[in-house]
Amino acid sequence: MSKAGVPMLTPKELERYDRQIMIGEIGQERQEKLKRSRVLIAGAGGLGSPIATYLAAAGVGMIRVIDHDHVSLSNLNRQVLHWEEDLGSRKVDSARTKLRNLNSEVEVEAIAETITERNVSRLVDGCDGIVDAMDNLPSRYILNRCAIEKRIPFFHGAIHGFEGRAMTVIPGETACLRCMYRGPVPQVKFPVIGVTPAVIGSIQATEVIKYLLGIGRLLTNRLLIYDGLKITFSEFIINKNPSCDHCGSLSTSSSR
Ligand SMILES: [Zn+2]
């Protein structure tokens, strides 16, 4: 499975990842696969914080974090990558510093840009997966469409108050975000407590790791709804819409 020229795991890395290499489904070969993987995290906020933290801790080789925003006091109840000392700093700079301090083996690309239809293709270029850690629907649609066009898996997550949802999209094979939702765009500022993105972001990071390693059963064609007040997880079947304006024209032939 190792490609020529790709460095194997160092003794330090073998020690660092010892407990996860022990997992039967992972092992050393798949740990090397993680090291060769490149993941884009769109958003360095509430969802982006746990996603980036756990993907860096797990040893994903390159993490590209995109966020145009600066750290403000009202972010700190949930965006745990950012601390009081980071107030006023660019979120991507704060994120890069924390992730490097956590795992210096991981390459972190920090891009302080707003994701638009014009730059999205460049921003996702070369990535094996796109993680939706955005806080607004228009940006999610831009990412969803680009992911489908480029046939890059898309890991959706969203939060509101004590509730959250997640779904994984494999372009051409499974339902996409647009198949699921075409309704009105909700309000921009929404309530949330930090434990909710902690749960949903961890689920998204789990999905990314499973996809990259080719293990387990992905959260595809299933929308997972989490209710933190009741601690319940519900699943809704989402069917691929043949007339979806994002993915409908894509053949169902597998690209992997
Ligand atoms: Zn679709």
Features:
256 residues; alpha/beta; eight-stranded mixed sheet; binds zinc ion
> What structural class do you assign from the helix and strand content?
alpha/beta
Largest sheet: 8 strands, mixed
How far apart lie the N and C ends? 15 Å
What ligands can be seen in this structure?
Answer: zinc ion
- Determine the mean pLDDT: 94
Integer-rounded radius of gyration: 18 Å
Total count of helical runs of at least 4 residues: 9
Uncertain parts: none
Reading side by side through the largest sheet, how are the strands ordered? 3-2-1-4-5-6-7-8
Tell me, what's the shape? globular
Give the helices and strands, then pairings.
Layout: H1 11-16, H2 18-21, H3 27-35, E1 38-42, H4 48-58, E2 62-66, H5 91-102, E3 107-111, H6 120-124, E4 129-132, H7 137-150, E5 154-160, E6 163-169, H8 177-180, H9 195-213, E7 222-227, E8 232-237
Parallel strand pairs: 1-2, 1-4, 2-3, 4-5
Antiparallel strand pairs: 5-6, 6-7, 7-8
Helix pairs in contact: 4-5, 4-9
Bound molecules: zinc ion.
Description:
With 256 residues, the chain is an alpha/beta fold. The chain is built from nine helices and eight strands. The protein has an eight-stranded mixed beta sheet, with helices on both faces. Helix 4 runs parallel beside helix 5. The model has no long low-confidence stretch (mean pLDDT 94). The structure holds zinc ion (ZN). Residues 176, 178-179, 241, 244, 246-247 line the site of zinc ion. Zinc ion binds at residues 176, 178-179, 241, 244, 246-247.
